[in-house]
Design brief:
Layout: E1 6-12, E2 25-30, H1 36-44, E3 62-67, E4 71-75, H2 86-90, H3 94-102, E5 106-114, H4 121-132, E6 137-142, H5 149-163, E7 173-175, H6 184-198
Parallel strand pairs: 2-4, 2-5, 5-6, 6-7
Antiparallel strand pairs: 1-3, 3-4
Bound molecules: guanosine-5'-triphosphate and magnesium ion (MG).
Length: about 200
């Protein structure tokens, strides 16, 4: 699939005000600075679509982008932003939780994790929560350009082993880099296959 049209629709902090159109939507979630907004831009071939920043905490709202006139990509704020208190850090921002609980159009959540890091508690807890709420998700490893292939393999293996201690199956995953467009085709193909299955 090729993205020929990507347009910003609306930003908001209330899931009830999100677009009412019944078209499939895919949300990007993960720690602040993991590369959610950059990945959306990479997929859409537009560096200025979603706002990115070297400093964590850039995306603050639920942002809907309409793709090829018939599905949505959703950019969300990151969790685990270091400048908030411990209690706030533990509780995911309420409107993000509500987005996942209430948004019926959501067909798949992509949980982004930085491929360079050891599995983080907050990511594992979030995946656990998605599982408990029966929200389908896939893992996207980001910033693959920062590691050599054998280190990528090793880190994924490590992630797998850890997750398999609590999960029966390792979720579907993608290895990506917004810098050099790694994983773009695979990700778009996956989304396309879901879109087609829903038609
Ligand atoms: P918040 O909106 O704050 O939650 O962050 P985010 O997850 O949207 O991250 P964003 O896309 O703003 O990127 C954060 C930083 O990581 C920026 O400096 C990006 O340039 C950088 N970055 C994102 N993706 C990649 C990547 O694939 N490779 C490299 N090398 N840097 C990346
Ligand atoms: Mg962002």
């Amino acid at each position: 699939m090729i993205i020929t049209k990507a347009e910003f629709i609306v930003s908001n902090s209330d899931v009830n005000k999100c677009p009412s159109e019944r078209i499939p939507e895919y949300a990007f979630i993960g720690r602040s600075n993991v590369g959610k907004s950059s990945l959306i831009n990479m997929l859409a071939n537009n560096k200025n679509l979603a706002k990115t920043s070297g400093r964590p905490g850039k995306t603050q709202l639920i942002n809907h982008f309409k793709i090829n006139n018939n599905w949505f990509l959703v950019d969300l704020p990151g969790y685990g932003y270091a400048r908030v208190s411990k209690t706030t850090k533990k509780t995911f921002q309420k409107f993000i939780t509500q987005y996942f609980e209430k948004r019926q159009q959501l067909v798949c959540a992509f949980v982004l994790v930085d491929i360079r890091h050891e599995p983080q508690k907050i990511d594992l807890e979030f995946m656990q929560w998605l599982g408990e709420n029966a929200i389908p998700f896939a893992i996207i490893f980001t910033k693959a350009d920062k590691l050599k292939p054998n280190a990528i393999e090793r880190n994924i293996e490590n992630y797998k082993n850890l997750l398999l201690e609590t999960w029966e199956k390792f979720p579907l995953y993608f290895v990506t880099s917004s810098e050099n467009k790694t994983g773009k085709e695979e990700l778009l193909q996956y989304i396309d296959s879901i879109n087609k299955s829903l038609r």
